[in-house]
Amino acid sequence: MVPAPLSNDGASLELDVVVADWQRLWRENGLVGDVEHAQHADSKGHYHWMIRLRGEEKDVIALWLTLRQRTVHFEVQIMPAPEENFETLYRYLLVKNADLRDLHVAIGPESGIYLVAQIPVGDVTLERLDEIVGATVHYVDEIFPTAMSMGLGALYRRRRRNPTQ
Fold it and tell me: What CA–CA distance (Å, rounded) separates 145 from 50?
């Protein structure tokens, strides 16, 4: 397979700068953990970043950014493949999907439940990245406990955090 060339040769460097600038702004508040970036394209010609975020319901949220030929794909796993209550869970997710802004729920690799988005490369600014990351954390924290209770109820018990923490 011949990788498709990026439509903008400097797109990887430009996205790296936006992600680094965003990380500097948010590192102080404790929301952002590490940001990793693969310096070389994969076999498809795509570049990857992984941003570790801290959630309230899900401790670590790993947001993947993939620079494709003309778009940046955002992806985060909400939960692994459900083992029970499939119909109830999928109905909940489809209803929830209608209320989501910027991202949408999808079934991903190995039947896991994901939040995904895709935007044109030129639209990835500091402000736009901030919107996507903020929506990601909000939606994961909103969907995760209910989805886990429905789809992996035998394994999952929701932690109740002390509001003073």
Answer: 23
Average pLDDT of adjacent 10-residue blocks, the chain of 165 residues: 66 91 80 84 92 91 95 97 96 96 94 97 93 95 96 80 54
> Pairing state of beta strands 104-107 and 60-67?
unpaired
Residue 109: how many CB atoms within 10 A of its CB?
9
Q: What number of H helices and E strands is found in the chain?
A: 3, 6
Q: Look up tokens 């993947």; give the residue.
A: 64
φ and ψ at residue 52, rounded to 5 degrees: -90, 125
Q: What is the DSSP letter of 106?
A: E
Q: How far is CA 34 from its chain centroid?
A: 14
Distance CA 59, CA 66 (A): 23
pTM value?
Answer: 0.86
Which residues, at least 6 apart from 164, have a Cβ–Cβ distance to it below 8 Å? none
- CB-based burial label for 150 (10 Å; 0-12, 13-18, 19+): buried
Compute the distance between CA of residue 101 and CA of residue 77 in angstroms, rounded to an integer.
17
> CATH: 3.30.1460.10, 3.30.70.270, 2.60.120.330, 2.60.120.260. Which one for 11-151?
3.30.1460.10
